[in-house]
Write a structure and sequence with these properties.
single chain, 254 residues, alpha+beta, Arc Repressor Mutant, subunit A, MAGE
Length: 254
């Protein structure tokens, strides 16, 4: 899990191949995720923090230790930094200390994704978030759209990875075509002038509202332990999008 699109992807705009390296499967992080976020002793902590994050509530170390299995508290404190790194890379959520005296923490969105409306089952939080981030990355890397056939192939690759970690999401394709489309994280449409008719997926309006191509690229780069500029064409696309975002100035009362 916490996968990035496979190494067979090259940076391309439709059929144009880009120079430079392409995002490849992260090699180290899946093991970290498996041993940390999927640890049985922490099974209730991740859903607890995600719900706090969605409500924009703070948390405390006392709360976290209360959720963690009693016999695991000392180990959790010793490995707290690794847990925070895993939460950041796996779910796009940063735990940021804001009050050292009381050990109060903010849950900060790195990707900007809220996940509201798609996480109805605590047991499915990690794989569903991972799949959403994965698909948004696949679409971006493929030139902002991906065919149904290509996405099916990528989802099958993703399923193989998560099954190795004994994580089950139920029906991933139903989650994609129903939940993610309904919640407008994805858009599903017929390719213009295609005959016979073919279909593709794009980022939906909600994905464009909550995150940006640059944030997704930075996330992919972190998973692969590299710099976003290592993917020059993707970086150029993301930078172009950043520059076209209209920033409406705040109204000033006179």
């Amino acid at each position: 899990m916490a996968s990035t699109p496979g190494s067979h992807f090259s940076e391309s705009s439709n059929t144009q191949k880009a120079e430079g390296s392409s995002p490849s499967q992260a090699t180290n992080f899946p093991q970290i995720l498996c041993s940390v976020l999927l640890n049985e002793k922490l099974r209730n902590l991740v859903p607890f923090l995600v719900r706090k994050y969605q409500k924009k509530e703070q948390t405390t170390m006392e709360e976290m230790l209360h959720i963690v299995s009693h016999d695991y508290c000392e180990h959790f404190l010793l490995n707290y930094k690794k847990f925070c790194e895993s939460l950041s890379l796996g779910l796009g959520i940063e735990i940021r200390l804001v009050d050292p005296s009381e050990y109060i923490y903010d849950l900060v969105p790195i990707l900007g994704l809220t996940y509201n409306g798609i996480l109805d089952d605590d047991e499915q939080i990690i794989p569903k978030v991972d799949l959403l981030i994965y698909i948004l990355s696949v679409i971006f890397i493929n030139g902002n759209s991906v065919s149904v056939e290509e996405l099916r192939k990528q989802v099958r690759s993703w399923e193989i990875l998560v099954l190795r970690e004994r994580v089950v999401i139920g029906d991933p394709w139903k989650f994609i075509t129903e939940d993610l489309v309904r919640e407008q994280y994805l858009m599903y449409r017929q390719v213009l002038n295609s005959g016979p008719a073919s279909y593709e997926f794009l980022w939906g309006p909600r994905a464009h509202t909550e995150t940006t191509q640059m944030k997704v690229l930075e996330h992919v780069a972190k998973l692969n332990n590299t710099d976003p500029r290592s993917y020059p064409h993707l970086y150029e696309w993301a930078l172009r999008e950043e520059n076209t975002i209209v920033r409406v100035p705040e109204r000033q009362d006179v």
